[in-house]
Amino acid sequence: MADSRQEGRLDVYLDPENARSYDRRWAAPRGVRRDLRKQRALGRALKLVCAALGRSPQCILDAPSGTGRMGGVWEREAAPGSLVFGLDGSHPMLREAQAKGWSMPLVAGDLAHMPLGNGTVDVLVCIRFLHLVKSREARVAFLTEAARVTRGGLIVDYRHGQTPRGLGRRLRRVLARLGGKAGPRIWPGRAQALDEVRQGGFEVLGVVPVRLPWWIGDKMLIVGLPVGDSRTPQGT
Length: 236
Prior knowledge:
With 236 residues, this protein is of the alpha/beta class. It has helices spanning 16-21, 29-53, 71-77, 91-99, 136-149, 164-178, 190-199; strands spanning 59-62, 83-88, 106-108, 121-126, 150-159, 202-209, 219-226. It has a seven-stranded mixed sheet, sandwiched between helices. It starts with 15 loop residues before the first helix and ends in a 10-residue tail after the last strand.
């Protein structure tokens, strides 16, 4: 994973016009509902991390932070006095976050090689990223980098293919290949997603579905603690 911007459609986020229009997708009623579901799930995932750590995280990294979509969560959920900062590889997206008045510190940097020391943050939160990354190897490489910079925990957003939507993508891919085209990307199954998180250096603490029942909603948050942490529970 030499450069995360080379993966999937990530290069579109470098376009200033796309950055300016990004928040429109969450402004319509359907987008507002989707946003609220994700924020509520993130709040539940943070509670799992706090219970495992036995304390509130004092340093949270939102990566990629984009235009600050999760800013409301940090205002509600972060403990008083804690540091929450965002990291993103797109300068236009970061500028949009600043224009919105996002008060957190913002850092420009590639998620494949984060400009942070080992064990810098208590919790790394990654929302709306891995479903854009093409290969298992690249996803595991990002998770390995996440394990390097966090000393406490991980909350990562995955889309799994075990839903009617996922099956539809598989069918469209088969039909496209019959026509000599690539077709839509196939998302990993739940078991594969959990295995990727483990391969990246985390023990899985829990899975928080964004929408219930889980076989209708294809989005889930996987909560993990770094391997070697004595507080990590055995099993899943």
